[in-house]
Every structure is written in structure tokens, then in C-alpha cells.
Amino acid sequence: MSSITSLGIGSGLDLNGLLGQLEEAEQAKLAPIAQQVEDQQVKISAYGEMQSTLSAFDDSVAALNDPALFQSVTSNVTGSAVQAAAGAEASPGRYDVEVGQIATAGNLATERVSDLETVVSEDGGTLELSFANGELNHNVAIEADSTLEDVRDAINADPEAAVNASIIFDGEGHRLALMSEETGEQASIIGTNFDQLAAGNLAGDPGGTVSQAGQDAELMVNGIDINSATNQIEDAIQGVTLDLQEPGSSTVVVERDNATIRDSIVGFVDAYNEMKSTTGQLTAFNGEEGEAGPLIGDSTVRAIESSLRNDLASGVTQNGELALLSDMGLSLSVDGTLELDEQQLDSALANDPDGVASFFAGDEATPGLAGRLASTTEQLLSSNGALEGSINSAETRIGSLEDRFERTEQSIDRTLDRYRTQFAQLDGMLGQMQQTSNYLTEQLNGLGGGQGGGGMGGMM
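^ that's the sequence the OP posted. Answer follows.
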């Protein structure tokens, strides 16, 4: 840079200023290239927006392409005797449920111990647990010098004990309380040898064992008697799980879950219109501000819109007859968005639910509208699809422009170096000429002064 700042010293000309103007003019060659790079980057971002909204639309299409959606059912319960949850296998219908009794777990409280610090078993031993179902009988090892709390902990630590142990105070002493882990008559705890294990260490008034046998649930479904060891009954109504709450009456109505189907169709419409809105913004021209969207006139966008519009307008053949969007309460408006007639959709769901399912999800032999759209969106979003191809093309263009930018920069540097060298040579040449001019002027002035002096001397 020192060579630049020294320019003009010899000649007195503003060569630095001139060189700066030339450099500014050369640098201007880079601006169009940088703008093209920026344009391509904006395009890539716009394609990314398209991918995002198309992906969201693809998700909504996938939901409608799932036959399970149209097989979903819901259960409504009146009365507080039961709660119900319907699965995919449930058949629509009405079921009257009468609960006579709910299933309970067996309980047993042992004889009393006067104090929690009392050693129940000095030598240790075995606590025998007996159940209505003898296969559940189990012995729990009790260590020497165990208190009532130690016995409780030993039971709860044994995974085969089939009871939960706790301690209760009945106002006169402490008892070991045992509750069966499972409900029902057969799982009921019915006895122990606690009095033998703790012989000699019980309270003065040990009292007797207090027990309450477990019981099975008893109910009727549409007049059919049902017994169950648990309060959760999964096989009384196919595909429906009943959860018994209390004795009493309830009505369970199983019906097709039209609300979920409707929500999926509304979501499909919203996702498509959101995609159209994004596309419109990216391809719009603002006449007032003179600004064009980054994808205005883009062939990829036109191809995507055309493919989806063709799928939507083609309809679906059902039993030899053509079904159209309008049959489902849907229509393509003038601006290309989808419009939904909610009343007509609700009517189709109520009167021809199988037709709605066939239109959107199709069957094993023929895809429905959602299946056709799914194939289209899958191709568009694939690594070999139109969007990814456009992104790759823009990235390749950016790489080419960056190479061109670098070459142009190098060319500008060489040009400026040449200007700098030429200006330095010019400055030196002009400086030498100025020195020569000054020398000659001095010499001529000197010659003129000598002649004048000689003439005056002669006159004297």
C-alpha cells in the first residue's frame, strides 16, 4: 500500500485518487455475481419452505390413507356403574350393563401385638399364608428377633407372597394387615399361622383374626350374566374394555368415531391451503413495490401444483362409479384452494361412512384419493424429486458463481497491479521531466544574468 500513498509525489498529480476510482470501477464487476449468488440462496430458502409445507400436507394425506382411521370407534357411557374404552375391533351397538357387585380383594388382620417394639419371633420361623386358591399358598421366612414391622417388611420384600402387608392400630393393639394383591374370590387371603409364630409374644388380649373374603364381580350385559375376578373386563363386549366402578346400571353406546375422521379431513384441507398460501407468496409479484417472489415463474412450482391439482380433480372409481371431491363436500375454488362444505361432509359420514372410507383410503386393489396423493408427494419429496433437484441445481449454480467471483477478484487484482505499476512509471517519468524543466529554467536564468552584467561593465 505504501506504493499507492507515494503516487503523485514526483508528478504532483492526484494519481491515488485516480487509482481509487479505477479500483471502484473494477470492483463493480463483482456486484452482479454477488447478486446472482444471493438470488440462488434465496431460491434455496424458498424451496425449503415449499418442502416444509409439502411435507406437512404429506402428513395429512398419510392420516387419510390409513384404513384404521375409518374403522375407529368411540364409546359413550351413561350411568356411573362402568367406564368403557372401545378398540378398533369393537362393533357399533348399544349395550345395557347392570353391575350387581364389583370385585374386591381379600383382607385379613392378625392377632394383636401390644407394642411395635415387641419382638414377635425370638427364634425366627415361617409365616404361612393361605389362600382360597391353594396354588397361591406361600411361606415367608421370618428372621430371629423380628418385630411386627420386620415381619411386614419381610412379606413386602417377597415377590411370591401375593399380598400387601401393613400395620394397623385398632385402639387396643397393633395388628398385621394383609390384603390380597389380586381381586376376586380365589385370590383371597384366608388364613395365617401368625398366632403360632408369635406364641408367647402376643398382647394380653390378642383378639382373633379379622378377615373379609374377596369377591368376584357380578354383572349382566344385555341380560347375560357374567362373573369376573377383576373389575376390568375385556371380553364381555368384543373390542370394548369395561372398567367397573360401582353397583348400578350403565348404557354403553359404541359408534363410529366420525369426529376423528372429520378432524382428519379438515386437517387435510387446511394443510393443502397452507401449502397453496406459501406457494402464492413465493411466486407473487408486488406491483406497488415492484418486487417479485423468489420463485415467480418457477417451473418446479408449476409442476408441483399441476400434479396435485390433477390428483384432486381426477376423482375415485367406487364399484364402477366415479366419486368426486364434491361428493365429500370438497371443491377446488378459482384460486386453487380447497373449500369444505361441512354440512355435506357430515351427511356423507352419517349416511355413507364406507363410501367416505373408500374414497380417501381405497382398498387393497384400488388406491383412494389419499393413496394417489401419497404417491405423488412421496415422489416430489424424494431425493430424486423435483424439489431436491431444483435445490441441487441452485447449489451447483452457486458453486459456479463463487468460482467466477474468485476468478474475477484475481483478474481485478492483476489489473490494479498493472495500473499501479503504470502510474508509478508515469509518476517517475513526469518527476524526471519536471526536474529537467527546473534545471533548464535555472540554466537559462543564469545565462541571462551573465550577459546583463558584462554590458554594464563596458559602459563604465
